[in-house]
Write the structure tokens for this entry.
Amino acid sequence: MKRLSYLLAGVLVVLMLAACSSDSNANSEADSGNSGSGENTSSDTVETGSVETSVEATGEEDVTLDFWIHQTGEDETNAYIELIDAFNKEHDDIHVNAEVIIDDGASAYSDSINAALVAGNLPDVMAVDGPYVSSFAEAGVIQPIDDYVDDEKKSQYVDSIIQQGTYNDQLYSLGAMEASVMLYYNKDLLEEAGIEPAESIEEAWTWDELMENSKKLTTEDRYGLNLFMNYGVGEWLTFMGAPLAWSNGGALISEDGTKVDGYLNSPETIEALNYVKDLFAEGVVTDSPGEMQFEEGNAALALGGPWIAVSAEDAGLNWGMMPYPYKDEKVSPSGSMAYAVTNNTENPEAAVELMKWMTNEEATIKISKATGMPPAQKSAFDNMEKFNELPWSIMKEQVIETAHARPATPAYPVLTDAFAQSFHAAALGEDVESVVEQQVQRVERELKRFEE
Amino acid sequence: MKRKKGIQRIVLYVSLILLTFIFLFPLVWMLVSSLKDEFQIFRDMKSLKAFLPPAPSEVEGGYFANYIAAFQRVDLMKYILNSLIYTTGIIVFGLIVNSMAGYALARFRFPLAGFWLGVIIATLIIPPESIFLPLYVLVYDLGWVNTYTGLIVPFIANAFAIFLFRQFFLDFPKELEEAAKIDGCSQIGIFFRIIVPLSKPVFATVAIVLFINHWNDFLWPLVVASDESMRTIQIGLQYFMNEPPIKWGQVMAALTIATVPMLLIFAFLQRYYVQGLTHTGSKN
Amino acid sequence: MKGNSSTAKPLTDHDHYKAPSEPSIKKVPPKRKKRRRSQAFQEAMTGYFFLAPALILLGVFLLYPMGAAFYYSFTDFYILKPDDISFIGFENFSYIWQDAQFRQAFWNTVYFSVIVVPVQLAVALGLALLINKKLKFRVFFRTAFFSPVVMSLVVVSILWTFMYNPNEGLINQLLGLIGISPQPFLTSPDQAMNSIIVMSVWQGAGFQMMIFLAGLQNIPNHLYEAADIDGASNWQKFIHVTLPGLKNIALFIFITISIAAFKLLVQPMIMTQGGPLGSTKSLVYHIYETGFNYRDVGYASAMAVVFTLIVLTITIIQRVLIREERG
């Protein structure tokens, strides 16, 4: 196939030169054409990533690993790059080429993966969002790594991270960070309203308490609660919202991940969505909050990710955090980006070596510091003082005790959109039942694909 | 009668000024806001100061603080350079290939000419996004992923450009070509020596159209130029839109940076552009 | 005139309508029979020589992927399993009729097109007429109206997302100055598409205005002078001289805007991600999402095929209507 490219370039050049040769105008045009194609062919060979600049290629490396990470906040990306540089220095026999793929918050990163997948162009190791592990595993796009990770190693990670990386009893991914959603609060505003915050999982607010207190905290010029609807209709709504359904005894999909009818539209799940609908109907939360609504004191409470702690601190807010509110069972959001070895690699062992490096205690601490996210290593939790005192201890408690992974199903991309759309429809005051019913049909169709 | 004319004139100018405001206020707001800090952007928005540049006393970090910050956060220079390289590549090759095709369809009589014109026009209808996947596989097989070639070659031939060229060449006086033929120049010589130098307007028009189209490409560079070193400006913009912290001032600076090359190109070619368009719809 | 082309497509019949009046030896039809075979052959060779690069490139990078997409539309191609493709006949096509999202996207696209096409045409014509006069600062006005085109759709979409922001957006702040409460421009299902329409017309009209301007300058002045002698009013001149003179251009613009409108993607992708409640999800966006986000290339390709057929049909209908009208 490559020959075709030269053929095309050749045809073009010949065409250019075939013009009246005495003509200066035609010549200059042909020249620019030539230089253009020369540039192109030379760039064919440039395939290394941005990290490459900081690494001296010795030419003696036995193994080269291509590694895709997604680009997020600056500090986080820099932390990854430093870790990879250190890995390359430490390992004479393995060289890692990292590509930082843009993540536009929507689908840019997964678009890149999908395109590469079809072309058979996947890297050796790639970052994968936790709940997507199962769909990649089901399709055989990533490979099990049990052979390279013993039980002792596994036990060093927090359970939820091993859970998120496991599909059909096999381990596929390792992550450096967990995530969670906390109920943040503005200390001044709560004090003013005389509301006591919860300071441990035992004291977590119930749905009713959340509703009541949010109403109390809502005034003419501020909302009681912020659900960060400005993130758009996407993974966030499932990540933040699904525990409401679980806490009420509902589900998104059957345990084995093959059926949504009777689960996504179960009375318990619908009730949870109607609770969301009520929150919006009561006017305690808006579907279009400003970027910094909570940080600027325009919302008293906020169900947000660990990064909110960082931005609230930066904004100089007097803030605190509470556990995720519950109905019957105490559950909380879990899962984050992790690493997996693709079936494209010839060196799974080296690839796992890299994954372990990226998720060891030192790395998890580094990344946790850069992102505010809870680390995925138990020892890191113990060694980071922050997590042993209030308020961060609540997050640690929550990650270890109530974290609930999102469902493992190959139909996850459609399922999560189905839930997010239903959540959003509830927020806009639509009839929850009919919206959910429509989404159920969509997911059922997708699930048929994976029936044997 | 004269008085009526006068009133008409006033109404005309008032509406023109109103329209100018409608068409320019976002641009002005973008430019002006790119010079302000966050706090001032939001404060000024509550009054018409939103459209006035900040007073020197109001700027703490200097007028270009947002620009400096934007360039520090992201390697915008490299992205712009990448975008310039590949759009220039498309334009240079596109002008040659499409003008030749347009010329063929306007001047020569050959079997299936009408058929090919129909096919070319019909390809305008296809949403490019719907063929990106098979196209990506093809480009990958050619070894063009993360190369300028992969960004350029698939988009050299452009149906709209061919059509514009054809419309223009239909009107091109034949006498000149006849004269050149008598001088003994080949058809190719005639084209590059006689036709091309005399067709600046249409070349400028097509260049602008191609530039506007491809300067804006998002999805294709995203998947084909996934490597950071190949990233283009539009993908760089996403960074400011989506990677926290989202600073409006920096977004405006980045948008301005992305706009400047287009403004420059247009300013340079505008003289020809209007002439070139004259032929667009004159016979279709 | 094009007897040798077997499948004459629309747009080809006027190809050489000038030829009879030209003194060209080669192209005057009555003399065709006398032309030596070799000369015709040579001309055909030259023609193909000029056309070949474009044809090859279009063939390889457009028609071939199109063919592939057409083939995929009859399969269950799923991105995660690119090596496991089976032929499933018309299953994808029959699902289109059950797909509520497709229906919604279809009507959204129709709604967008039906409004944008005439409004943008009218705005562009209006602008062109306004500044096709002896004016002070004419070039300034022209450049002002054209500037959104130069700014590009992506930049403009990002910019307007900030301007439409429900809380801190510029437009709501300006409306606040005249006492109008903040509008949920992009966050309400009732307003989102209209907000996108307003921005699209604003962004695109300048381009067509330029083409109209060029057309206005092509209308011979003596027609207006003759009308003046007949004592025609401005309105009569507009109806009887200007409009007929612009007819071809207007039709050209009409067809290109229609096609572009049907291909709506960038604005909802950047501004609303198709929401709220799918109210701005366009057909092309739905196709893109199905193929890339949900990995269902087979079904996405089927929708792309149907989409192409729909637009092709509309374009042909437009052509036929236009031709009939022309008599």
